[in-house]
């Protein structure tokens, strides 16, 4: 089973690309959605202990956590030490289920794929990209987003130019949704029959 990493900076159009992949019957695991679930469940007590004041009504409040992290340069490292192993466990279970159903391909949608070294754990990396102007407009249109918050998020992410340079495939989302979908379709076609090594090397239940 081919393991594909889908990535791109905030506001680049990963959700659109992921939705198109799913129309091909390909399983896609959204790491952001996994984190959202963890912030409402298993990760809450651990994060609350490490970052007092980050909860509201029994779940992690992302805005409060973001404010705490903005004032704590070492905070991201501590947060990642809590969350990343939990996300990795969910990813492993997802890939095992996809392999068990005989899937030829499975996708891990991970915004910080390169930043966390996740590119070493997949067979192929697809980067979703747009111009800085398009990215900024999309992100600032989101509820609760501010210039300061955007700057904080971008500071943690590898430059888009570097992601494009490292990518096996790039999806340019500056055009219409139909144009984006056509690019995704072409990538799916190109990946059919591609040799896979990542699953057995890094994700198989036989891997310690």
Which helices and strands occur, and which strands form pairs?
Blueprint lengths: L1 E6 L6 H10 L3 E4 H9 L4 H7 L4 E2 L2 E2 L1 H9 L4 H26 L4 E5 L14 E6 L2 H9 L6 H9 L4 H7 L2 E4 L4 H15 L6 H6 L5
Parallel strand pairs: 1-5, 1-6, 2-5, 6-7
Antiparallel strand pairs: 3-4
Keywords:
alpha/beta; two-stranded antiparallel sheet; 7 strands; 2 domains; Rossmann fold; 208 residues; 14% strand; single chain
Fold and architecture overview:
The chain is α/β, with parallel strands linked by helices and 208 residues long. The chain contains ten helices and seven strands. The chain folds into two domains: 1-26 and 103-198, Rossmann fold, CATH 3.40.50.300; 31-91, no CATH class. 51% of the residues lie in helices and 14% in strands. The strands form two sheets. A five-stranded parallel β-sheet has the order 2-5-1-6-7, with helices on both faces. Strands 3-4 form a two-stranded antiparallel ribbon. The longest helix has 26 residues, at 75-100. The model has no long low-confidence stretch (mean pLDDT 94).
